[in-house]
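WARN  no MSA supplied for this record, continuing single-sequence
INFO  ligand: 6-O-phosphono-beta-D-fructofuranose
INFO  echoing inputs
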Amino acid sequence: MNTRKRLGILTSGGDCPGLNAVIRAVLAHAILTHNWEVVGIPYGSQGLVERQSIPLDAQTLDFRGIDPLLTTGGTILKSINKEYPGEKEDDIIAGYRDLGLDGLIAIGGDGSLAILRQYAQKGGWNLVGVPKTIDNDVALTERSVGFDTAVNTVTEALEKLSFTASSHDRVMVVEVMGRTAGHLALHAGIAGGADAILIPEIPYSIEKVCEKINRVREFLGRHYAIVIVAEGAQTPVGESRTYTDALGEVRLRGIGEYVADQICHVSGKELEARVMVLGHIQRGGAPSAFDRLLATEFGKVAVDLVAQQQHDRMVAWQCGKVTSVSLGDVIAKKTVLVNPNGSLVQTAMAIGTYVGEV
Ligand code: F6P
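INFO  complex generated
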């Protein structure tokens, strides 16, 4: 009889850099320390419905003599970024048993983890969560895998755009991801030296944005400006900018264009603005050193939790170290937004960056 523990691992929701690094750490620790059998479930819950599993072993950690998972973006296990239809619930729940799993490590954002936890509760799964998202909005963890890399990507983009903005004395409006949270815009905006940072959590006025840009011109003699806008920021009258794609899905996009148009309009065409929607480049690329470190620690501790039979928990980063928290508490707290009175907002304001009407 095979008594080796069989551990499943899946990635769910939007991808981000560092997912493969988590898979690598889970795999290495599970096989080297515990001699467990590890299988990847492709496409998250879809793999459970279809009873698919991919054997992961020592060879997965090597590609022609190089270590591919640490540095490769995306996810080798694939992922779906939509909720699986409700009527599949029983099928998904049964998939865990049919695949002979003794434990499941799910790498996901708050939405995916909430849904998977429901399945786990109903089906008696041994589930451990690992938070990932460039939105950094999962509760009870100060960092999610992928966020640091995305901040670096956006910061680099702001730097690059500042040169072209400078050449033409323009305002560059840069729209970034983050869904309903402004963490990515706020962090990258400060790191990339933006003149204005517009986020969903703080109302703003276009007149004040223009005032700030004019002050930069008058007092600093700098004739370009960078404005970063989170995709979830609303217009001053409280409307989100969205579009409906060919599949009928409503997606956030367009607030950058709105802000750029309004800057031209309110300034009486004195200010010329261009828009850059950074889009999915923010989810691409090799993970930063910090994300590799976080992914590795998260993967290791997730395996420890399974080994200690501490299920229904999520690994978390708090006060500079890895810990674990109750998955139920994470889900109950819902999406974590930027605190308008928090230190980052205060810092931005203190150095003269416009962050809205705090
Ligand atoms: O949650 C991560 C995220 O990148 C959001 O910032 C963004 O709104 C969304 O996913 C985009 O999703 P999709 O890849 O389905 O277009």
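The first strand starts at residue 6 and ends at 11.
INFO  checksum written, moving to next record
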